[in-house]
Amino acid sequence: MVQLMQETCPAIAAFLGCMGVASSIIFANCGAAIGTAKAGVAIMQSGVNSPDLVWRNLIPVVMAGVNGIYGLITSIILLSNINAPDVNGFNTYSLYTGTAHLAAGLICGLSGLGSGMCIGVAGDAAIWACGKWDFSTKQVRGFKAFGKRNNGMDRKKAGGGDKIFVAMVLIQVFAGNIALYGLIASILLSQQTSYCGGGDAN
User: Fold this and answer.
1) Across 62-87, average pLDDT
2) What is the pLDDT of residue 116?
3) Rounded to the nearest 5 degrees, what angle is found at the Cα of 143, between the Cα atoms of 52 and 162?
4) Which has more confidence, 113 or 54?
5) Is the sign of the CA dihedral 109, 111, 116, 117 positive or negative?
6) Residues 81, 190: contact at Cβ < 8 Å?
7) Tens digits of per-residue pLDDT, 85-110?
8) Predicted confidence band at 146 (pLDDT cuts at 50, 70, 90)?
9) What is the pLDDT of residue 193?
10) pLDDT at position 156
11) Which of 10-48 are b and which e, b meaning 16 or more Cβ less than 10 Å from the residue's Cβ?
């Protein structure tokens, strides 16, 4: 019986589970950092010519930051399912559970990494497009000051600029969905547990 428990619940199982916890938060945060950095640089550079568009262009930064939250959620769920050895020193955390948790962490982390890179690259291009359109419109219509038009029209009614902005929002939403799909899959996989010593298998 003891031999069977050692084979089913080896000491390395907990290591695999902890690596799943680390993978989810590390890769997801790397994706969030890459997306924030790419979009943040574009926002600051584009804001020199179009400072009134800075707040609207913060959408990629927000979307990238959400990926880090997904990784945090997954890591908390996985960590709560990792069991310490019992009072007799026997491991109850099985190799099956550790492998499942490692895979769950990698799913969420790598999905967040890919999503963050997509958000950063697409957001960078979209922010530059919005800024370039805004600045060129100012020059064509003879702007004398930021945020003003000769005919008194609000900037949001520019037409073409709004279409670019809507396209950016849609791109960011679908890019963020990649991380969301990884979160859902990782949560489902994290529930596949089997513990030694009378634990239930799901």
Assistant:
1) 90
2) 94
3) 50
4) 113
5) positive
6) yes
7) 777 777 888 889 999 999 999 999 99
8) very low
9) 81
10) 46
11) beebbebbbbbbebbbbbbbbbbbbbbebbbebbeebbe
Instruction: Report the C-alpha gap between 87 and 11 in whole angstroms.
Output: 15
Residue count of the chain: 202
Residue 36 near residue 120 (C-beta atoms within 8 A): yes
Among 21, 41, 30, residue whose Cα is nearest residue 64: 30
Helix (H) or strand (E) holding 109: helix 95-140
Cα 64 to Cα 137: distance, rounded to the nearest angstrom: 29
Asked if residues 110 and 151 have their Cβ atoms less than 8 Å apart, the reply is no
Residue type, 66: V
Mean pLDDT value across residues 101-122: 95
Phi (first) and psi of residue 117, to 5 degrees: -65, -40
Tokens of 148: 């003003």
Q: Is 73 exposed, middle or buried (CB count within 10 Å of its CB: 0-12, 13-18, 19+)? A: middle
Whether pTM > 0.90 for this model: the answer is no
* Counts of helices then strands in the chain (DSSP H, E): 5, 0
Please, is 107 exposed, middle or buried when counting C-beta atoms within 10 Å of its C-beta (0-12, 13-18, 19+)?
Answer: buried
Q: What is the rounded CA–CA span in Å between residue 77 and residue 129?
A: 40
How many CB atoms are closer than 10 A to CB 92? 19
In the predicted model, what is the mean pLDDT of the chain? 83
Alpha-carbon gap, residue 201 to 186, rounded angstroms? 17
